[in-house]
Backbone:
């Protein structure tokens, strides 16, 4: 990963630099017009968040039951990414909703559950920071339950129909609006690459902190 | 008997008041004068992408700062260890 990190950073930077150009080029959607262009980063950020949740869930399981330190580093690093991408997803959704729904915020099941999901992972980080010794185990349990909540957030629009568009919108996008579909895939790819890079940087920080702790202990001995 | 009839009539009128109150909302009213969008979309789209960039760069800065702090602590600890070995 060390050798690949810099080339991947360059690829990600190029992808994000070209994204606004591609978003500007893609035709307007017929009913929502310009505001629909928020969608390309909005959808991609939720995909990035889903990837981070999957990493956190698996890492938390391994950390809790195997006691792996490396899995614990991945758990805390990915939980931080869940919060970052969640905050952007909720913010961009709020801006879109202002135009599409006429309000900044709506207590729609999908929106409410997504907020709860972000709060669970914010709780994870707070437990890690202020929980004291042994907080890793408690946080890992929160990570597992946070990951278990994610499918409910995804299906919320189908199970409890409200104002948020259902998941079927994405299934038909490729046929009805191919240019938008291609751009969604492009932005999702860029965001997933960003997740990989941020995760690598954050895990390196955790590894360095572990090394620092080891040095302190060696000095005390 | 008259009182009862009057009371019944009054109850019907009061009960139907909300229905009449909703009548104007069920009509289409033509606009007069120039029409502009009440909520312009461009600032919302630009704000969304700008917020993402700000959030990303702030997060990258916090990672860079935290790594820098750990590296500084490691260097200080190494110096401390070297001094201890010289003594």
Residues:
């Amino acid at each position: 990963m060390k050798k690949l990190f810099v080339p991947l950073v360059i690829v990600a930077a190029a992808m994000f630099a070209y994204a606004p150009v591609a978003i500007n080029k893609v035709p307007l959607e017929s009913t929502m017009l310009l505001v629909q262009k928020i969608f390309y980063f909005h959808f991609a950020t939720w995909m990035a968040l889903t990837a981070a949740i999957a990493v956190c869930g698996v890492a938390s399981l391994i950390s809790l039951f195997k006691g792996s330190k490396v899995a614990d580093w991945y758990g805390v690093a990915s939980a931080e990414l869940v919060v970052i991408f969640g905050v952007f997803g909720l913010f961009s959704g709020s801006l879109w909703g202002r135009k599409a729904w006429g309000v900044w915020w709506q207590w729609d099941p999908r929106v409410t559950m997504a907020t709860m999901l972000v709060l669970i992972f914010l709780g994870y980080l707070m437990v890690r920071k202020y929980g004291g010794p042994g907080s890793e185990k408690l946080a890992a349990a929160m990570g597992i339950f946070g990951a278990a909540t994610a499918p409910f957030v995804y299906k919320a629009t189908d199970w409890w129909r409200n104002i948020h568009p259902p998941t079927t919108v994405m299934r038909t996008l490729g046929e009805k609006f191919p240019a938008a579909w291609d751009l969604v895939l492009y932005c999702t790819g860029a965001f997933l690459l960003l997740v990989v890079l941020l995760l690598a940087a954050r895990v390196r920080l955790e590894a360095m902190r572990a090394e620092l702790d080891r040095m302190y202990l060696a000095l005390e001995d | 008997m008259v009182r009862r009839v009057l009371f019944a009539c009054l109850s019907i009128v009061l009960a139907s008041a909300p229905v009449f109150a909703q009548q104007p909302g069920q009509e289409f009213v033509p606009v007069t004068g120039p029409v502009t969008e009440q909520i312009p979309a461009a600032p919302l789209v630009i704000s969304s992408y700008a917020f993402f960039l700000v959030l990303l760069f702030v997060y990258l800065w916090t990672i860079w700062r935290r790594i820098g702090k750990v590296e500084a602590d490691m260097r200080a600890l190494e110096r401390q260890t070297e001094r201890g070995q010289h003594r």
In short: The CA atoms of residues 79 and 85 of chain B lie 10 Å apart. Residues 42-86 of chain B form the longest helix (45 residues). The mean pLDDT of chain B is 79. Chain B is about 75% helix and 0% strand.
